[in-house]
Specification:
This protein is of the alpha/beta class. Helix content is 42%, strand content 15%. The protein folds into two domains: 11-211, Alpha-Beta Complex (2-enoyl-CoA Hydratase, Chain A, domain 1); 214-254. Helix 4 (120-127) crosses helix 5.
Length: 262
């Protein structure tokens, strides 16, 4: 995101683009010359942008995408190599965790995957609420292949999306899963023609905006909080939150809905 100072805008300032239109925020990873590899500064900016969009009262849904030809391959490995390898036990986190920022976002977050989505990029996509994939999208977990352990949630998120056996296969082989297979195994919600990716993602976001109320974000939070719970635990959580939820009947009237009998 560009600084608010009067200095000239440089290409580095444009590595992350943020637009808000029709209550939809679109965040674009914009380092195509580096295959959208995420430097420390870019990871921090993703965190900042997501928090800003989440706090923006003019935003009801968020789209996260990449500048063609790829979504992102994850962390900028050239920067990592230049920093040297930390010793075991050292804190390896040199910037904000963008996948955690995705999971912490209360507003519905759509990942529009426009191309290759690898390793840290896959963790980010998995941390979003929905994934809309271009027909050119392809997914892989290459952490083990390059000799590192994931740190942004891969081992928790991937098996929840595709099942433990497929998650283990993807990690152990580092093979690419093409868009249609990703749809078949439940990794993505939709596969669309590449040229229609953003319009389809915006169409989904527009449906969310049209249906959005304070209960939308609250219910999305319940889904996340209940993930991994037993049915009994998840149902108890839902009932507890509903007991403490105030129904906004005036808002229902404004939206042309009948007030419930409460």
């Amino acid at each position: 995101m560009a600084d608010s100072t009067d200095r000239p805008v440089t290409p580095e300032d444009q590595r992350l683009l943020v637009e808000v239109n029709d209550r939809i925020a679109t965040i674009t990873l914009n380092r195509p010359e580096a295959r959208n590899a995420m430097s420390r500064r870019m990871r921090n900016d993703i965190h900042t942008a997501l928090r800003a969009c989440d706090a923006n009262q003019e935003v009801d849904a968020i789209i996260l995408t990449g500048a063609d030809p790829v979504f992102t391959g994850g962390v900028d490995l050239r920067e990592v190599a230049a920093d040297g390898s930390p010793e075991p036990g050292d804190d390896k986190r040199q910037a904000k965790d963008p996948a955690r920022a995705c999971r912490d976002t209360s507003k519905p977050l759509i990942c529009a995957v426009n191309g290759t989505c690898v390793t840290g990029g896959l963790e980010i996509a998995l941390s979003c609420d929905f994934i809309v994939a271009s027909e050119r999208a392809r997914f892989a977990d290459t952490h083990a292949k390059i000799g590192v352990i994931p740190a942004w949630g891969m081992t928790a998120l991937l098996p929840r999306a595709v099942g433990k056996r497929m998650a283990k296969e993807m990690t152990a082989t580092a093979r690419f899963v093409e868009a249609e297979e990703a749809l078949r195994i439940g990794l993505v919600n939709h596969v669309v023609p590449h040229d229609e990716l953003l319009s389809q993602a915006r169409a989904l976001a527009s449906q969310i905006v049209a249906a959005s109320t304070p209960a939308t974000s609250a219910t999305m939070r319940i889904y996340d909080a209940a993930d991994g719970m037993s049915f009994t635990e998840a149902k108890a959580l839902e009932e507890e939150l509903m007991r403490n939820w105030k129904v906004d009947t005036d808002d229902m009237e404004r939206r042309g809905l009948r007030k419930p009998k409460i």
